[in-house]
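Reopening this one. Same input as before:
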Amino acid sequence: MNIITLSDLQASVRDRSAFNKLSDYRQLGQAFLSLLELSQPTRIISPSQNHYIFYQYDEETSYRITRPLNTQLFIENVDEFTRAFDRFGDFLADLRKYEDKAATRPDAENYLRSGEINRVVYTAQQIVGCIGDSFPSPNQSRKRVGQIFEQLVRLIIHETGVHCDTRRITVPIPGVDNYQMSYELDLVFSRDKAILTSETKYIHPSEVVGSVKTTSKDRLDKIFLDKYLLTQFLGREIPVIAIFLHDVQRAKRGNSIFGINATFKSNHFLGYSVALNRLDGVYYVDPRPEMVTNPRLSAQIRDFQYFLVYDLWTLSAR
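Same output, byte for byte:
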């Protein structure tokens, strides 16, 4: 039997034809976690926040270090990951069948209370990120890791039966002849596949625009501005949501390089909400504690599980 190596996993992340189905994420996750058990890289606990860890690869990979991993979400055991991923697939099938009523089914209460949806999505994507961290240069993989997260979210929404796709639009600038602005939309979703007409050839009134990023760092202002400009240019309210994986990064704390630094800028977020517009939903797979404890933030920010189980259906019913 051939033993899968880190080089094999790097090739999988580079493969542009991969990640077209959720089972690809399951397979990659199993392979990576099995490799961890076999190779046993150094496991480093952050001294500043003990529930975050790092893995340090061996000499062959120049002792590179992974991104911080939240052990409250990251599943390190391959068998546990496999079982959790399969339960997630079963629940997505329930969402497809029962839509917003799925949460009220007798067997759903304990499952949703466990928060396992966030754990599965977080683990599947952070495994991609950890493999990306093993590349010689971060620039070799950063964009690809982000693309794979966008695709993961699209596939999850598609599995619920809600139509979801990426879209490129070019909208005219009102009052300025022959000038246009182009937008690459990470995802556009609706309960039913919308039919675009000449009056709504950019975004149908029943559609919701989504921005999907691994982190809000250096991206937050653009999302708020995009909603504002799309609404101004198209002459009607355009619903826009944002989905983020997390908002932490490795940072030096004292003499240790394994500290944790939050990249979420709460004052900027609240400022954009007042000065421009509130987004129609903001969701994190790994929310920062302040997003739960600060009432001004918690009024606008939820976790990804809440989006999938509740807000997806409310938003797509427009």
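So the earlier flakiness isn't reproducible anymore. For the record, The chain has a mean pLDDT of 93.
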